[in-house]
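Listing S7. Sequence submitted for prediction.
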Amino acid sequence: MIHPRLSVSEMCTYPWTFAEELVLWDSLDLHHVGVLDAKLSAHGRDEAIDALTSRSLRLTTLIADQFDLGAPETWEATREEVNQAIDLAALRGGCVYITPGAGPGRSFDELTDALAAAAAPCVAHAASQGVRLAIEPTQRRNRSFVHTLGEAAEVADRTGLALIVDLGNCWREPDLAAAVHQVGDRLAVAQLCDVLAHDRGPLPAGTRVVPGDGDMPVETFLNAVLETGYTGLFELELVGPAVEAEGLDSATRRAVDRANTFLEKVLP
């Protein structure tokens, strides 16, 4: 039985088609999933939404395109895509999130101001629809100028954006629990995995693995999130060489089993 506060992101099965993911979700009897807006469009947006609705699947997250912070002339087109995702979240639940974007040679302040300007109309639209629009700080410097939860909290305050807290992206925080507490009510969704803190054979440090297979204090992370007052779902997000080597079907199923065990312990 799936824990009522567990969700599975499409990122776990990123190479698969939406139709293939539906088969897995049905077999796991999921009630909540995270999706990529681009995958819905590739499948056929209306058909994908009908498939979610007929299964009573609620969304936890909906990933939309990020803004090109160095190309303001593209922002209006991106806003239309983000707002389309917001409208779907208003119908099927969940928050919409993007990666913050990057800009080589530009300062943190400059990029924060650019993100604020780019996202402002979408932040307003999300608020009008009762949806949270969030960013996900990530270690991928070609995708994000925001790398720590402290930086993310500052950007959130300056832009009106909420935050995704993903254990796979914040595992290097010196005091993980304190960093999560700092996020507080800016937290939109918590994402769960495990991470290798050191090289393990051919797998480098930072590799995501099934919860319980790595070196992270997963239970500490869950409790820290709950201590912020968070009442939302915990979304599994597994990507990378370890899960690919195992097979995405097997890794996702094991991750669901492990996450259930962790959640039953902290949320009996």
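Caption to Listing S7: primary sequence and predicted structure tokens for the chain studied. The chain has eleven helices and ten strands. The mean pLDDT is 97.
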